């Protein structure tokens, strides 16, 4: 028994030795048995207390193990529920520690899974918070601390919904970033056209828009987009205003150049301005073409030309007056140039009229004169043709009166050709006159005013010509009647007195040139004096045969001829 004590409990040997040593000490002291008994009872009670505490501690440890096991089971169920999974595990049989050891791997696996799921949620929520902060324009979000993740719902469905939300936000961010970049490009383009510092302008909108390194995230907030939109709108309005200003200045330049007769070399210095006159806002994209210095230089040039224009305006006014008179003269319209110049001089000297307005008024008059000239041109051309035909008719009459027109002198063949053309043209005078009269009447009915040609109504001229032609025809008719009567009288005398007609000379030997021509005009223009010569020749030949018997009759014939010639 003593040999087994050390193996069973080494402390028991120690307690026994201590108890023997205590007995020895008591014997030496002479402690009474009652005191000894009391001390031993105390020692026994203290030992019981120690064992009781150990038992209580062990019982509590057991309870803790049960609690741990229950908590582990509950945690497994909670994690499985949060992850949306079903927990399949069994405690098994055995001691509590064996059961705990069996459940620990399952719990550890679920905890790892939960941590990974929470990490995924945290990363996604961090991105969501960051993008939302960028869209809201709240500056840089606080990403030093992880966002709070609700561990009650860590299911795959919830994770998918969060990822879908993140994808929508990322798409929104991409769209906004593209919009911001598009606005920035528009600002750069407009600033280049207007010669404005785009970096300074964009920095006023948001400092992140001008980061040259690109490390700074560009602001995509609603406020930034709104301010960029407003900036582009203001730049476009400025572009429109500057372009309109250059349009006006360019047109003014062109007008002044035309008025002043500016050389092409001088105009080249402002070709970049005049080339914009017909350009719309969207077509203008050349760098610096709408810069303020371009507008200022153009304004100075316009001001300089206006000063020159004021000094030369009087000359330009009279130049326009000459142009106006030339237009009127070109279509044979009546214009009193001297009176018009006197009026212009009085207006300019009075200083009560704006020379630009006066010049503009004269431009309007020139435009109206051109319209009037255009409406008269066809008739004027026909009038000139008609007048030319009349002149040719007069020339032809004079030509056919010339007895030497067939001589072999210089220019005779040219006159023959001209006479042939003149006869052809004279034959068309009736149709020309008729057509011209119809045209003039139609024009006067449309305009409501008479058509004047060199201050004379052209219809009156046409009527006078028609009357003149009728008088000529009447004169010719009377001449033919006179001739018929003379021939009839000669025939009666011949029958009465037995006179023989003298042989007629050959046609080529006749001294009357007009009988050789054979044209209607020549016959119309034959004079009674020519016929009187032929008749007198006949009388002279017959006088030797009839002596004084017919003296009285032959005296009457020249008398009739003289009357006919006078008519």
UniProtKB/TrEMBL annotation:
<keyword id="KW-0963">Cytoplasm</keyword>
<protein>
    <recommendedName>
        <fullName>65-kDa microtubule-associated protein 5</fullName>
    </recommendedName>
</protein>
<keyword id="KW-0493">Microtubule</keyword>
<keyword id="KW-0206">Cytoskeleton</keyword>
<dbReference type="Pfam" id="PF03999">
    <property type="entry name" value="MAP65_ASE1"/>
</dbReference>
<feature type="compositionally biased region" description="Polar residues">
    <location>
        <begin position="508"/>
        <end position="518"/>
    </location>
</feature>
<comment type="similarity">
    <text>Belongs to the MAP65/ASE1 family.</text>
</comment>
<dbReference type="GO" id="GO:0005874">
    <property type="term" value="C:microtubule"/>
</dbReference>
<dbReference type="GO" id="GO:0008017">
    <property type="term" value="F:microtubule binding"/>
</dbReference>
<feature type="coiled-coil region">
    <location>
        <begin position="55"/>
        <end position="82"/>
    </location>
</feature>
<keyword id="KW-0175">Coiled coil</keyword>
<dbReference type="GO" id="GO:0000226">
    <property type="term" value="P:microtubule cytoskeleton organization"/>
</dbReference>
<dbReference type="InterPro" id="IPR007145">
    <property type="entry name" value="MAP65_Ase1_PRC1"/>
</dbReference>
<feature type="region of interest" description="Disordered">
    <location>
        <begin position="499"/>
        <end position="545"/>
    </location>
</feature>
């Amino acid at each position: 028994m003593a040999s087994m004590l050390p193996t069973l409990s080494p402390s028991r040997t120690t307690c026994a030795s201590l108890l023997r040593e205590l007995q020895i000490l008591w014997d030496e002291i002479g402690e009474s048995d009652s005191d000894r008994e009391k001390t031993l009872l105390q020692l026994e009670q203290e030992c019981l207390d120690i064992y009781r505490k150990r038992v209580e501690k062990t019982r509590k440890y057991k309870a803790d193990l049960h609690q741990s096991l229950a908590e582990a089971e509950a945690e497994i169920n909670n994690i499985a529920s949060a992850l949306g999974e079903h927990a399949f595990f069994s405690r098994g049989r055995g001691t509590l520690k064996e059961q705990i050891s069996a459940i620990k791997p399952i719990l550890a696996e679920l905890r790892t899974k939960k941590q990974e799921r929470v990490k995924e949620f945290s990363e996604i929520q961090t991105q969501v918070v960051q993008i939302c902060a960028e869209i809201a324009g709240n500056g840089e979000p606080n990403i030093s601390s992880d966002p709070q993740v609700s561990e009650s719902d860590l299911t795959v469905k919830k994770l998918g919904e969060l990822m879908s939300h993140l994808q929508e936000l990322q798409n929104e961010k991409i769209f906004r970033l593209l919009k911001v970049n598009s606005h920035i490009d528009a600002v750069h383009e407009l600033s280049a056209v207007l010669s404005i510092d785009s970096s300074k302008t964009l920095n006023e909108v948001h400092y992140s828009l001008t980061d040259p390194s690109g490390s700074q995230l560009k602001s995509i907030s609603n406020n930034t987009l709104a301010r960029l939109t407003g900036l582009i709108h203001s730049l476009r309005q400025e572009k429109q205003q500057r372009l309109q200003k250059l349009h006006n200045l360019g047109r003014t330049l062109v007008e002044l150049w035309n008025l002043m007769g500016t050389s092409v070399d001088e105009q080249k210095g402002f070709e970049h301005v005049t080339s914009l006159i017909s350009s719309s806002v969207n077509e203008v994209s050349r760098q610096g073409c709408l810069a303020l210095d371009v507008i200022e230089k153009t304004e100075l040039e316009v001001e300089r030309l206006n000063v020159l224009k004021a000094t030369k305006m009087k000359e330009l006014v009279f130049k326009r007056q000459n142009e106006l008179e030339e237009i009127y003269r070109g279509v044979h319209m009546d214009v009193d140039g001297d009176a018009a110049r006197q009026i212009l001089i009085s207006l300019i000297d009075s200083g009560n009229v704006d020379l630009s307005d006066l010049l503009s008024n004269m431009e309007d008059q020139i435009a109206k004169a051109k319209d009037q000239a255009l409406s008269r041109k066809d008739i004027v051309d026909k009038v000139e043709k008609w007048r030319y035909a009349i002149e040719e008719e007069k020339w032809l009459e004079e030509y056919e009166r010339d007895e030497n027109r067939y001589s072999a002198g210089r220019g005779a063949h040219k006159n023959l050709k001209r006479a042939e053309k003149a006869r052809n043209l004279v034959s068309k005078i009736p149709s020309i006159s008729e057509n011209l009269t119809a045209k003039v009447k139609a024009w006067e009915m449309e305009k409501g005013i008479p058509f004047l040609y060199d201050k004379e109504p052209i219809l009156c001229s046409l009527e006078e010509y028609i009357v003149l032609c009728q008088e000529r025809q009447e004169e010719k008719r009377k001449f033919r009647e006179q001739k018929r009567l003379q021939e009839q009288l000669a025939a009666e005398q011949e029958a009465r007195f037995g006179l023989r007609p003298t042989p007629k000379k050959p046609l080529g030997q006749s001294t009357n040139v007009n009988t050789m021509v054979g044209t209607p005009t020549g016959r119309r223009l034959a004079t009674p004096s020519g016929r009187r010569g032929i008749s007198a020749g006949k009388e002279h030949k017959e006088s030797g045969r009839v002596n004084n018997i017919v003296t009285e009759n032959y005296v009457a014939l020249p008398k009739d001829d003289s009357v006919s010639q006078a008519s």
